[in-house]
Description:
five-stranded mixed sheet, 13 helices, Rossmann fold, three-stranded parallel sheet, globular, alpha/beta, Bact_iron-sidero_bind, disordered N terminus
Amino acid sequence: MPTDSAAVSRRAFTLGAAGLAAGLLAACSDSADSAESPSGAGKGAGSGEWKPVRVKHKFGETTVAKRPVRIVSAGYTEHDFLLALGITPIAVTDWYGDQPYATWPWAQAKLGGAKPTVLKLDDGFQFVEIAKLKPDLIIACNAGLEQPAYTKLSKIAPTIAQTGKGTDFFEPWTHMMELIGASVGMPAEAKKIREGVAATFAAAAKAHPELAKKKAIFLQNAVSDGNLIAYQDGLSTEFLTDLGLVVPDAINSYIKEGEQAYIPVEKISVLNAADILVWGTEKDADRTALEKVPGFQNLTAVKNKRSVYTGGELAGAIYFSSPLSLPYVVDKLVPMLAAVAK
């Protein structure tokens, strides 16, 4: 995973484009009448009679009056959720990894031959580009959406924000699945997907009782500004806890508000609270660098050979924490965990 603060820390992004004039947006909306759909993209929501849906979120309630066909995925991972529902967005948002059409291997089959427009969120929402696409629904529930940006996006098309029940980025994937399913009029299908993923994890947990109650901590691949970045219980750690593992609360005193736990290198021994350490390494050089961190070789999990090093695709699947990436996590990570848990 990148080491820049935008991607690594998942911090709230500055809405650099928020100052765009409303008149400019209006002009783009007018010109969008002639905008063409990206090649192969734009498979809309469901079939049959459409009934307007009302979706509650952090900034109130959005009504989706007509069946959405031109859907923009304006946050980092929402396109995985749409693809899981059989919906192809006309635009996706790139996070990291330089994947074709911002779509990682576990989701590429669902994308098929579609070529959606790829947006960026690095400097805030690309309001003008989004308006040019003339969407009829904008999904932005994993985009760190704030009120000013929500207001601007809502002038372009009905917009779905995060629930407001958790962090602005990376709410529990089940919340996002429910929210997105409701937005496109497919709540039953969304529920079935949630149940399917849950069953996959339950089966893996049953097959590997050696994981039950073991303490595990997931960390990013590198030291950032003198800190190791760990994920506390509840922050995209369901991939561990749904397997029966437990995230120790010893790291909680290092949590930054709305973010992860930032553990100073000199406090690395706090990681001895875990039986297993899962490192989101992306290449061999990441592991080599970690092994040179003061105190790393003395960690109990390292000495006991109970450290897991993911590799790039598995790390990405963990970070995405989507209905398409999580089964991939089970397939790839569980054998690695089982090998070190014995």
